[in-house]
Q: What sequence folds into this?
């Protein structure tokens, strides 16, 4: 019985892997989560569904669901496409120093 419990405890370490993933990827996961919330707010304001957005993006509703949950590491291309379709800015990049020298 004891061996069985120890075996199950060792085998069931998925929670630990998930925690390590969240810790290692905290920076982009936080930004992705905030983008997801912004998308949900825009969809609600426009009375659009995730399915409507998926159709406009030519992707699956499941992919949109991953985006709005904040679990998808979005490319700049995808962010730009979302911004264009929803006619809203999701991220801003500040131009702190435009004096570049080579």
A:
């Amino acid at each position: 019985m004891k061996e069985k419990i120890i075996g199950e405890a060792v085998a069931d370490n998925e929670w630990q892997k998930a925690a390590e993933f969240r810790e290692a990827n905290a920076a982009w996961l936080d930004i992705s989560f905030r983008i997801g919330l912004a998308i949900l707010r825009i969809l609600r304001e426009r009375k659009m569904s995730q399915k409507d957005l998926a159709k406009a993006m030519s992707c699956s509703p499941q992919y949109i669901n991953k985006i709005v949950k904040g679990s998808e590491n979005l490319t700049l291309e995808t962010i730009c496409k979302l911004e264009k379709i929803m006619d809203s800015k999701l991220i801003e990049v500040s131009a702190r120093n435009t004096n570049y020298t080579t």
